[in-house]
Amino acid sequence: MSNLLFLLILLPAVAALVCYFVRSSAVRTLTVVATGAILTIASLALLGQGTFEPLAVGSFLGISSDFLVTILDFALLGVIFAYGIKHKNLLIQGFTLAQAVLLAWFELVVVEHAAVPALVGDQLSLIMVLVVSIIGSLICIFAIPYMKEHEEHLHLKKSRQPRFFLFLLLFLGAMNGLVLSNNILWLYFFFEVTTLCSFMLIGHDATEIATKNSVRALWMNSLGGLAFVVGMMLVYSKTATLDISAILAAGPQGALMVTGIGFLCLAGFTKAAQIPFQSWLLGAMVAPTPVSALLHSSTMVKAGVYVVLRFAPAYVGTLLSDGVAVCGAFTFVACAALCIGQSNGKKILAYSTVSNLGLIICCAGINTPLAITAAVMLIIFHAISKSLLFLCVGTIEQAIGSRDIEDMRGLYAKYPRTATITIIGILTMLLPPFGVLMSKWMAIEAASSNIYVIVMLAMGSALTVVYWARWGGSLMATRAEGAVPEKQAALIRMPLTVLCLGAVVLSMASPWIYNSMLAPMFNAPPFTVSLGSLDAATGSFAVVPLFIVLGLGALYAVKAASGFRKVKIVAPYLSGSNVGEEGTYIGPMNGHVPFAAGNMYLGELFAEGKLTPIFNALAVALIVLMLGGAL
């Protein structure tokens, strides 16, 4: 057990240092691939061993591990404060200084430093380790050829890849440490490490816009760090322990303690980019695609939802729990609405990520065994499908020089493999019986007793269909002739293929995942994720029959399409006013007007600039009510 935990937390840090100090591309490639393979095996082995009780961590080089974490805490805050000075940002400086002062007073004056087991492996932790280690590793492997082409495009004289992979791999170790932490001070330390890593990766290209967005991410997440410190102090004032397992076992312990948990949830909101904190994650889209994929699928934002889920037993049955559910549901529907007006592929993925994270947080607030199980299933399936789609968009952008979905029409003609995998990724986010939709179904079932939440979830789900169907339709609407096999680097093809197969195969295996793994773990009620039952009763989801129908539909579509391969392609019929085949029609004053196919984005109804201030104001009000409800 100790060896597995060492590999999962410290190996990525060691590998990160190797990538930084050994400036050889061959060594870097070998290090990243080997680290990914070891993390994958170690995470599966840890799951195979099962849950384990809180575990003490001894000294390191003769220094107490708790004391070492404390020293690293203040060193980390010092580094973040220095970046605040460098970028002349008073918010970063103020939030970081406040954290340092409160933390010093807390650790030196308030806390009685009794021995607290540092690490724990419960059901949620083990699943999160799988998500971080496997999906995160695939993204790191994808980054090897991607960053080479990225730097060639930027015409860099000196490669920044050593620094890039330093923070990319360090991110994985920090996330594994975060989800395995049982000492709340350890959890806070790893929480802040992810803040620094995201800042460095978002600003990696060192352009003006990259720097601006990285600074915004740093001050918003520094605010989350301050909320974490305040929450931790309030919780300790009531429970007198740093042991997270003991805090959760005790349950809600009065207004002061629940308010502290509310501040921890607020910290999770900032990290998960919930409205009104979504702008930092949208700004992170300027970073190289592997960064976007990592932040959105398996690391940064998942740290936020993990914190809210982790402390769910400590606020179950309280008004805070209801407030968390409403805030999450509001983010779900609001970001789905904002997504409607977008044509930028990365921005669609960003808004849909924030929306789905809102759904996970909503499940944490509903706080029933079924809702918690739905949240965990959403974490798994969303991480797979969303990382796949981000990597697809990055591959497409490097191929065609655009991430706009309107420019992806006819993609199959030149890049059939990438186009096919992208379509499959979109379908796994959109259609039954794939895991994301099934998890949403479960979440709506779990919310059936709260009319406000269920209405927002239903509206958000309807809006979700619009933007996914539009994108998928754009890719499938243009028929291509003579598509040739696509050449793709092995380290690009492998992660895309594995994630694509994972999204499909795990969805097919969802009855086993639910009935044999997750339901027993979280004591979920008899929501039937069935292999073959067609029972239409509330609380059932017939996976295999739906896959059979989906498969037959796909076969029919392929057969129907094959009959038109030799049909001559003609221009659209424009009331008899077409002019030849050059794509024009006769317009006003008998002039030739070019035409083009395009989607509707309903810019006036779903204008980002108009809706965002309104949604932000409403979200702030809901968060104030949430924290006020804790009192």
Distance between the termini: 41 Å
Counting helices, strands and paired strands, the structural category is mainly alpha
Helix coverage percent of residues? over 70%
Query: Largest sheet, if any?
Result: 3 strands, antiparallel
Instruction: List low-confidence stretches.
Output: none
Adjacency order of strands in the biggest sheet: 5-6-7
Rough outline: globular
Mean pLDDT: 87
Total count of strands: 7
Give the helix/strand layout:
Blueprint: H1 2-21, H2 25-49, E1 52-55, H3 65-86, H4 90-110, E2 119-121, H5 123-154, H6 161-180, H7 184-202, H8 208-239, H9 244-250, H10 255-271, H11 279-283, H12 289-297, H13 300-310, H14 319-340, H15 345-366, H16 369-400, H17 411-414, H18 416-430, H19 435-446, H20 451-477, H21 490-508, H22 510-522, E3 528-530, E4 540-542, H23 543-562, E5 578-579, E6 584-586, E7 592-594, H24 608-630
Parallel strand pairs: 3-4
Antiparallel strand pairs: 1-2, 5-6, 6-7
Helix pairs in contact: 1-2, 1-6, 2-5, 3-4, 3-7, 4-8, 5-6, 5-12, 5-16, 5-21, 6-7, 7-8, 8-10, 10-13, 10-24, 12-16, 13-15, 14-15, 14-20, 14-24, 15-16, 15-20, 16-18, 16-19, 16-21, 16-22, 18-20, 18-21
Q: TL;DR of this structure?
A:
With 631 residues, this protein is mostly helical. Helices cover 71% and strands 3% of the residues.
Write a structural description.
This protein is mainly alpha-helical. It has a domain at 316-569 and 613-631. It is built from 24 helices and 7 strands. The chain has a 3-stranded antiparallel beta sheet, with no helix packed on it. Strands 1-2 form a two-stranded antiparallel ribbon. Strands 3-4 form a two-stranded parallel ribbon. Strand 5 (578-579) and strand 6 form a beta hairpin. The radius of gyration is 25 Å and the shape is globular. The model has no long low-confidence stretch (mean pLDDT 87).
